[in-house]
TrEMBL record, chain A:
Keywords, in A-Z order: Membrane, Transmembrane, Transmembrane helix
Record keyword Membrane present: yes
Transmembrane segments: 38-63, 136-160, 180-203, 224-244
Stored Pfam families: MlaE
Keyword Transmembrane helix set for record: yes
Highest rank taxon of the organism: Bacteria
InterPro entries per the UniProt record, alphabetical: Permease_MalE
Name of the molecule in the record: ABC transporter permease
Organism: Flagellimonas spongiicola
Automatic annotation (TrEMBL), chain B:
Signal peptide: none
Name recorded for this polypeptide: ATP-binding cassette domain-containing protein
Domain of life: Bacteria
Gene source species: Flagellimonas spongiicola
Record-linked SMART domains: AAA
Gene Ontology terms for molecular function: ATP binding
All residue ranges annotated as the ABC transporter domain in the record: 2-238
InterPro entries reported in the protein's UniProt record: AAA+_ATPase, ABC_transporter-like_ATP-bd, ABC_transporter-like_CS, P-loop_NTPase
Keywords assigned by UniProt, alphabetized: ATP-binding, Nucleotide-binding, Transport
């Protein structure tokens, strides 16, 4: 019953986000600020993780393909498929749920406990629109971050494969080009847009509806990360079944 | 003027406000006092429209809150200024940004016009050199003054203050009290202040509402509170030794 109530409240919050919009010049500056904090501020960690995940995928694939009958180009093929289909969109989103999600919950939660949200409401401002809408729009830039993650992940795989002696460069690149299905990129970006919405709204919900003081802000951040990850994993399964199944 | 008619408010099984009726007049500093847990903050949040009473009504200059649409309620809130207990300044903005925020949000003034208005209200609350500072860089008393400046920048009809003196030294507390009273008179605002501070009661309490366990126990002025025989009020107001002595002296003088 408690969960059903929370789900209901979440959808009411999502509806409230699009009501009584904030003045456009102010909203524009909020969106640009959020793009800077949520997307540009996360590029470093995304690039770092993607590069090494790509490398690890290559090494593990190579170590498991030890039959001389299997061409080395399959290492590049497996790396591409793994990175594009799962590691870049899903793994990166889990990282973002931790980094961006906890930032969103703690910043909104702190505003809540210090009555800053009440201050917005008293002024007649739709606080949900003011705080959450710019985050949703900023997260629409998230597919660009995931595209970078795809590129860097494959680059990491190529570096690990070539310089680690697992696959010659030509073979790896041949594998990258093998049986390429463009829809896989579309599928990956569709997932990314859905995950972006989840990352922007679930942590906001936990920040807006938290009760208590500073300790509860920390607890709300942890809860937000857990629920954002759970919803990402479940929607990943549903989207994969719908789009590829 | 704000007329409160028999409002009730509950949270689950807890009945917090139990039929409060009163009137807060324009141009006066109206104080709401009572022990912690007596329902003062819930009462103030009902006046602000942050909580909706289950029963009863609140009338702002002839407009019944319950009859207003969501948009009309938001418009009414733009006529209100609020000074929160913890000031509730936006951490990410400078002092100037905090005060300019409502102007930026709701008016079509040019940057220069807004800057003039911000300079004027900051000067009015005696804050001259703090424009570019962030809330984390200023003292508690300065934060309160910024909060007052933000509350009055839009020329509100109603000013609400939740324990504006809490956490301040006695001298600064008196300055804040006097500032609120001056602003109330100057702009003819209906001001409602939640307070525990007996100095405020004695200094600026033109109308005092005493709440006890969610009921209106007593109402009157700061002059009447000296003379009242209501036990709950005297126990609350004269709980400190200093005020007990003051009252004793008053009674002796009267006799």
């Amino acid at each position: 019953m408690k969960y059903l109530e929370a789900i209901g409240k979440y959808f009411i919050m999502v509806y409230e986000v699009f009501k009584k919009p904030t003045k456009w010049p102010i909203m524009r500056s909020l969106i640009l600020k959020e793009i800077d904090e949520l997307i540009f501020g996360s590029l470093g960690i995304i690039i770092f993780i993607s590069f090494f995940i790509g490398g690890v995928v290559t090494i593990q694939t190579a170590l498991n393909l030890n039959s001389p009958l299997i061409p080395k180009s399959l290492i590049g093929f497996a790396t591409r498929q793994s990175v594009i289909l799962e590691f870049a969109p899903t793994f990166t989103s889990i990282i973002m749920a931790g980094k961006v999600g906890s930032y969103i919950t703690s910043s909104i939660g702190t505003m809540k406990v210090t009555e800053q949200i009440d201050a917005l409401e008293v002024m007649g401002i739709n606080s949900v629109n003011y705080l959450v809408f710019p985050k949703i729009i900023a997260m629409l830039a998230y597919p660009f971050a995931v595209a970078i993650a795809m590129y860097v992940g494959i680059l990491g795989g190529w570096v690990a494969g070539t310089f680690g002696g697992y696959a010659p460069s030509g073979e790896f690149v041949k594998g990258l080009q093998l049986d390429f299905i463009p829809f896989h990129i579309t599928y990956s970006f569709i997932k990314t847009v859905v995950f972006a919405f989840i990352i922007a709204t679930i942590p906001s919900f936990h920040g807006l509806y938290m009760k208590g003081g500073a300790l509860e802000v920390g607890k709300a951040s942890t809860t937000a990360f857990v629920w954002t990850s759970v919803v990402i994993i479940i929607s990943n399964y549903i989207l994969t079944q719908l789009l590829l199944g | 003027m704000i007329e409160v008619e028999n409002i009730h408010k509950s949270f689950g099984d807890t009945h917090v406000l139990k039929g409060i009726s009163t009137t807060f007049e324009q141009g006066k500093t109206n104080l709401v006092i009572g022990q912690s847990g007596s329902g003062k903050t819930v009462f103030l949040k009902c006046l602000l429209g942050l909580f909706e009473p289950e029963q009863g009504n609140i009338c702002y200059n002839g407009k019944y809150y319950a009859d207003l649409s969501t948009d009309q309620r938001r418009d009414l809130r733009q006529e209100m200024g609020m000074v929160f207990q913890g000031s509730a300044l936006f951490d990410s903005m400078t002092v100037e940004g905090n005060v300019m925020f409502p102007l930026d949000m709701f008016t079509r003034q040019t940057k220069a016009e807004m800057q003039d208005r911000v300079d004027f209200v900051l000067e009015r609350v005696n804050l001259i050199d703090a424009h570019k500072k962030f809330p984390s860089e200023i003292s508690g008393g300065m934060k309160k003054r910024v909060a007052i400046a933000r509350a009055i920048v839009m020329n509100p009809k109603y000013l609400f203050c939740d324990e504006p003196n809490s956490g301040l030294d006695p001298k600064t507390a008196i300055l804040i009290d006097n500032l609120i009273q001056e602003i109330t008179k100057e702009y003819n605002i209906t001001t409602v202040i939640n307070t525990h501070d007996m100095n405020s009661v004695m200094e600026i309490g033109e109308k005092i509402l005493f709440l006890k366990d969610g009921f209106k126990e007593w109402e009157g002025t700061n002059k009447e509170i000296f003379k009242t025989d209501n036990e709950a009020v005297t126990n609350f107001v004269y709980s400190s030794e200093l005020f007990k002595k003051v009252r004793q002296m008053y009674i002796e003088e009267r006799n």
